[in-house]
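Limitations
The structure tokens in this dataset are predictions for the assembled complex, not deposited experimental models. Users should treat interface geometry with appropriate caution, especially where small molecules or nucleic acid strands are included. An illustrative entry is reproduced here so readers can see what is and is not provided.
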Amino acid sequence: MKVTLEQVAKYAGVSRGTVDRVVNKRGNVKPEVEQRVREALKALNYERNKIASALAYSKNEKKVCAMFQKTDSEDYNAKIMQGIHDAKKELKDFGISVEVAICNTSDAGEFIRKIDAMIQEGICGFAIKAPSLPEISEKIDSLVQQKMPVITFNSDIPESHRTCFVGQNLYQSGRVAGNIMASLVRPGEKIVIGCGIPQYNAHQERVDGFVYELKKRGFQEEQWKVFHTNQNYDVTYRCLEEIFEEEDNIRGIYMSVEPNEACGAFLEEHSFLQHPYVVCHDTAPETIEYLKKGVFEYIIDQDIYMQSYYSLLLLRDAFRNGTCDSGKVLGVNIYNAACFE
Amino acid sequence: MKVTLEQVAKYAGVSRGTVDRVVNKRGNVKPEVEQRVREALKALNYERNKIASALAYSKNEKKVCAMFQKTDSEDYNAKIMQGIHDAKKELKDFGISVEVAICNTSDAGEFIRKIDAMIQEGICGFAIKAPSLPEISEKIDSLVQQKMPVITFNSDIPESHRTCFVGQNLYQSGRVAGNIMASLVRPGEKIVIGCGIPQYNAHQERVDGFVYELKKRGFQEEQWKVFHTNQNYDVTYRCLEEIFEEEDNIRGIYMSVEPNEACGAFLEEHSFLQHPYVVCHDTAPETIEYLKKGVFEYIIDQDIYMQSYYSLLLLRDAFRNGTCDSGKVLGVNIYNAACFE
DNA sequence: CTGTTAGCGCCTTCAA
DNA sequence: TTGAAGGCGCTAACAG
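Predicted assembly:
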């Protein structure tokens, strides 16, 4: 069952080293010998032992960097750090150490300075969550050109040549939300859509997906109304007050980004004949509380923990394989109150 | 950063072997030496290298068995097999080989005979999906008494002393479904609940959870009606016909177990003013089709693939640690049509 | 009770 | 272009 390099070598009448050269395509093998080895490999159905391989390879020590911009939500930041922390533990045995760099602004300069500083320290791979700005994109391209793996997570920079992206498909997550809302709200009832900042592609994408799905399920433009939260608590609260004063028969609220709490507070502090169904994103503890209390109906999560964790693990594979499995779009997870029992 | 046994040994003034004895609690170490080693361990913050450990330990070859009863759904069986297959590949490097045993009936005798046969072949651990019958439970107890890990998956045998269980909490999954339904259906509207076979605890549990949640959300007993599908296509179809003839204003159908297709076909072949919302379990390809077509509204999945895969991996940990992390209740995953885009 | 040593299977350097 | 050999860090058997 278990076939080793040694056995293949014996079968082919060569040494372990030669088989290794063939298996790992290191070149410097005479074609006819290579042919013979390949046949032996096939005949014995050799598969390399990943554990042994990892152990031997762990001599090549490497340093990678996880870089991200802090958000306003401490919980969110903590989940990212937790993912990094767990990945760090996992990667240690592979001889890979992880440095963390946190940016405080969305200024391209800050990112680029931090990247350069990290490279000075001998970093040879990045997992990075950064705004999609031309300067950053170019910087990434220059790193990739130097054969350095760069993986974007959570928020993609698709214009760049990043090795791959780990995160949610925002448009799809908006569609999932739209589909949920369409099942909750009935003909003649109205929906309020909270968009963050329209200039941010990421915010608009979810709303686009949401609206697409509403249309698909037969809703009319008059049935929904978009407002901009500016990602600000007070703005959100006031907008909701205004809209609920103007309109009636609102049965759905979609919060495409934080601050979910503003919406929760608004609903708790006002009473309605028919309480509106709330669909929102990301499982912050406060958001889950609203879900449990029945103020919110559904949360769609993107597992930010997994994103930071997984992107770091992919970096390891990138070192071994020169590349990594074509990125990874992590799931769109739906939760209702009963999920947290 | 990386601390090895060797370094700890040097620090404590003993040999690697002795440190190993302390780390792995193999005994035979003089208390004062042990004390010294423990201090060194702490001082250097030693953590064992899992890769190296696994490689060395893989010398101890082991055989485990995955045993399950075939269901009527070929897709379901295939997912179980896929999980086993992937686990097999993963475990190979650990020196663990996996045998599969498939039972055709729910007869305790068949299971017990197959278990005995496996033990003849040198199996030393089981991952098993079996009905909860006293004879099987006793058999499991006798294996566990001989220090053999036995993990139940998908369907638990809680009366037994199985090492742990990997699967969904059925009651909770019913609650999740109930909560969804409660958000879809409004006052005055009715819900039909398809229970499989009431004598099967597993079927009843989901329905209990479902009803619990309906009550919690203020629904009245008159609003729902339970029927028994017998897990049979024709029975299900006929029951639905009858109920829809008798009652009107039915807006929700909950299928707690297969055959979901009977429900799908029924809805496609009849037309209603208000099409009822369908919430059901398990992502068989046919069920997903109905979801995509908009005939079904939500599917709640239990990732059976992951259950068979994960239970086998836990067996590996059980060999190393004598026990394994207190089982694992895998998630309750909610899907709507947009999830499959 | 403790130290020594021979692997586990692969990777990598160094000679040849 | 190839073979030989010395690790990677840990486990386990054996000798003392």
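Some entries come with short summary sentences. For this one: Residues 2, 4-6, 16-17, 20, 23-24, 48-49, 51-57, 59-60 of chain A lie near DNA strand C (CB under 10 Å from a C1').
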